[in-house]
């Protein structure tokens, strides 16, 4: 599903955000990307999302070489990728419900059918009671849960999460990881960038560790 071949990303000069990394992730896998701040985790996710091209090497997503992807075909790729950004990227002046509705790709659905998709997800993420609240009035943890709901609404093939538990209390953080692991069990490929070692220990899964842009370990949990 995701295949990195000798991928390097240089932003300027000799400093490499990613330095010749290779790995493969299968469909339905749940993988942690971990490492200290600045190790290259977000850069790796940005490559998968075609927000960035490698300076050298190849990134294949479902056998498609992203070096050759055209600007016009990027939205098609992204339609299949749910992303939970570190800074949420929500529409602050819209309600929780509207944020998710806007993300819903299937506009031809009846209002009732759209509600039937959105409302169970709001309950699952414990934000149903905030559905009519403007996002700008939410706490950081609530915004994060809206961002997660928005990423999942279209049942994406790939889910990318950059520190999805960063603003959450421990119980909510654990529930979020459980939810993301369920999503992987249902067939989506889920990649979680985190530096939370406690969560990884509690919910073990394959863990790729980056240090200064290099993979220093890739441990499978069976
Ligand atoms: N747009 C950019 N321009 C220049 N340098 C960048 C850019 N984005 C990232 N970098 C550099 O690349 C390296 C890797 O950054 P990246 O954001 O991928 O790390 P990270 O592991 O996600 O860190 P964090 O946990 O703090 O989010 C860092 O040294 C960072 O300063």
Secondary-structure blueprint of this entry?
Layout: E1 2-12, E2 15-25, E3 30-34, H1 41-48, E4 56-61, E5 64-65, H2 74-79, E6 81-84, H3 96-103, H4 111-124, H5 140-152, E7 158-162, H6 170-185, E8 189-193, H7 197-202, E9 206-211, E10 214-219
Parallel strand pairs: 3-8, 3-9, 6-7, 7-8
Antiparallel strand pairs: 1-2, 1-4, 4-5, 9-10
Adenosine-5'-triphosphate is lined by residues 11, 17, 35, 37-43, 195.
Family: Belongs to the ABC transporter superfamily.
Keywords: ATP-binding, Cell cycle, Cell division, Cell membrane, Membrane, Nucleotide-binding
GO molecular function: ATP binding; ATP hydrolysis activity; transmembrane transporter activity
Number of domains: 1
**Are there runs of 5+ residues with pLDDT below 50, and where?**
none
Instruction: Name every ligand kind in the structure.
Output: adenosine-5'-triphosphate
Radius of gyration: 17 Å
What is the third-level CATH name, the topology?
Rossmann fold
Percent in helix: 25-40%
Q: What CATH architecture would you give?
A: 3-Layer(aba) Sandwich
The side-by-side strand order for the widest beta sheet comes to 6-7-8-3-9-10
Written as H for each helix and E for each strand, in order along the chain, the element string is: EEEHEEHEHHHEHEHEE
How many helices? The count is 7
Q: What's the mean pLDDT score?
A: 91
Percentage of residues in strands: 25-35%
Tell me about the largest β-sheet: 6 strands, mixed
Organism: Deferribacter desulfuricans (strain DSM 14783 / JCM 11476 / NBRC 101012 / SSM1)
Membrane topology: Peripheral membrane protein
GO molecular function: ATP binding; ATP hydrolysis activity; transmembrane transporter activity
Family: Belongs to the ABC transporter superfamily.
């Amino acid at each position: 599903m995701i295949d990195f071949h000798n991928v390097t990303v240089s932003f300027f000069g000799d400093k490499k955000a990613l330095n010749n990394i290779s790995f493969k992730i299968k469909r339905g896998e749940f993988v942690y990307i971990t490492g200290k701040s600045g190790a290259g985790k977000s850069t790796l996710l940005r490559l998968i999302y075609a927000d960035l091209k490698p300076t050298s090497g190849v990134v294949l997503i479902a056998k498609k070489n992203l070096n050759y992807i055209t600007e016009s075909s990027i939205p098609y790729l992204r339609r299949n990728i749910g992303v939970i950004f570190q800074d949420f990227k929500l529409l602050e002046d819209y309600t929780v419900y509207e944020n998710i509705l806007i993300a819903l790709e299937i506009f031809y659905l009846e209002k009732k059918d759209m509600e039937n998709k959105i409302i169970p997800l709001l309950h699952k993420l414990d934000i149903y009671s905030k559905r009519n609240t403007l996002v700008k009035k939410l706490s950081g943890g609530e915004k994060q849960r809206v961002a997660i709901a928005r990423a999942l609404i279209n049942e994406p093939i790939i889910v990318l999460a950059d520190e999805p538990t960063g603003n959450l209390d421990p119980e909510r953080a654990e529930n979020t990881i459980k939810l993301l692991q369920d999503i992987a069990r249902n067939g989506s490929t889920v990649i979680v960038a985190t530096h939370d070692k406690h969560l990884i220990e509690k919910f073990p899964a394959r863990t790729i560790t980056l240090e200064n842009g290099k993979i220093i370990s890739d441990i499978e949990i069976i």
